[in-house]
Amino acid sequence: MSDPAFPQPAFMADEEIRMFADSVGKFLDRNAPPERVAKWREEGMVERAFWREAGAAGLLGVSVPEAYGGPGGDFRHDVVVAETIIRKGVEGFAAGLHNVIITPYIQAHGTEGQKQKWLPRLANGERVAAIAMSEPGAGSDLQSVRTTALRDGNGYRINGAKTFISNGQVADLIVVVAKTDPSEGAKGVSLLVVETDEVEGFRRGKKLDKVGLDAQDTSELFFDDVWVPAENLLGLEEGKGFYQLMAELPRERLLIAIGSAVAMERALEETIAYVKERKAFGKPVIDFQNSQFVLADCKAKAVVARVFVNDCIERLLKGELDATTAAIAKLWVSEAQGELVDACLQLHGGYGYINDYPIARMWRDARVQRIYGGSSEIMKLLIARSL
Questions:
Q1: What percentage of residues in the chain have a pLDDT greater than 90?
Q2: What pLDDT, on the 0 to 100 scale, is given for residue 3?
Q3: How many angstroms separate the CA atoms of 289 and 345, rounded?
Q4: What ranges do the domains of the chain cover?
Q5: What is the pLDDT of residue 2?
Q6: What is the structure's pLDDT at 65?
């Protein structure tokens, strides 16, 4: 928003960042026009060709170092991509998942050979990434995953089922959370990389019919005796998977908080424009004191969310974002998003319930923010441990 209540933080006041944001916006305007996005929503997924276009335009792997085929940006560039996608209404394009959640696993925990092999193809769009954590019987409790990756010759044989996997239909590089030693609990968890076109026994299940995020494919995945070579074990050391997951989750939770904050700002902007134009009882809806008070409360929430999220981004840039603060951000901002978007929909009246209006999609999309990346209840448990 251009509202002075949402000032640009100092760490984003960089001409190169501004130019990058401009190029991302122009790319989305040109390559993701409303009719193309509508087609993605109808089909329940973003076409694979668009991922390659985004890679060629420099929107993927933006913080991957130049030595590994990336543009050598930092988390600010990731923020620009994630925020611009939401502001432009292209939420089904899960570049944030690809850029901020999965690619950093390889950057932070992969060997030199693994980085050289996988990062360039993630940055140019040849590979689309997904991470297979959740299972039919294990969501936030990652220690309870039942998928196994047992040693077989000079590799591992993976067996198990995963569900709720974002990018599940288009991804061809999947980081799989599995037990290399089922008897060891968390210490037996490892991460293995599966390149789907190079293995046998991998199956994609149905594309799940969700409440929101219509254009983002979410799927079941099945691994039936999928053999991968030993060099596909991330970091080449068994039993490090749980540590690797915990090390990267704060950034994932901050990404969700960032998405919630931007969605709040967009919902507020859409609603203010609507109530200024819509009339009831002979005057604009904005002229009613109730409308003003509701929007004042919404703006207060949006400003607080933005200020806190900016502080978290700055902490992450300095390497100082801790798990508790990330959990607070994910919890509070996603809950505030739900409250704000619901209030904004109410001010649209009957039109708010019609999917032709952006606020209706934003209301549906908001619901999952309190679930994925760790539910609000899990965030409270994490925060409580710091008391």
A1: 93
A2: 76
A3: 17
A4: 10-127, 130-238, 243-384
A5: 63
A6: 96
Superfamily of 243-384 according to CATH: Butyryl-CoA Dehydrogenase, subunit A, domain 3 (1.20.140.10)
Catalytic residue among 83, 91, 135, 252: 252
Q: What residues have CB less than 8 Å from 289, skipping those under 6 apart? A: none
- Tell me if the domain spanning 10-127 has CATH number 2.60.120.260: no
Q: Which long-range contacts (CB under 8 A, 24 or more apart) does 17-20 make?
A: 17/76, 17/77, 17/80, 20/73, 20/77, 20/80
CA 379 to each of CA 170, 290, 329, 382, 387: distance values in angstroms, whole numbers, following the listed order = 30, 33, 9, 5, 13
What residues of the chain score a pLDDT lower than 70?
Answer: 1-2, 139-140
Are 128 and 172 in contact by the 8 Å Cβ rule? The answer is yes
The DSSP call for residue 97 is I
d(CA 174, CA 134): 13
Residue 148 backbone phi and psi in degrees, to 5: -115, 150
Q: How many CB atoms lie within 10 A of CB 321?
A: 21
For the structural domain made of 130-238, what CATH number should be given?
Answer: 2.40.110.10
The question of whether 252 is a catalytic residue gets the answer: yes
Whether 278 and 270 have beta carbons less than 8 Å apart is answered as no
**pLDDT score recorded for residue 338:** 98
Angle at 381 between CA 375 and CA 384, to 5 degrees: 140
Q: What is the pLDDT of residue 1?
A: 58
Biggest CA pair distance of the chain: 78
Strand 283-284 relative to strand 279-280: parallel, antiparallel, unpaired? antiparallel
pLDDT at 210: 95
SS3 139: coil
The burial class, CB within 10 Å (0-12 / 13-18 / 19+), for 376 is middle
Q: Give the per-residue pLDDT at 139.
A: 65
- Which residue, 162, 290, 158, is CA-closest to 221? 162
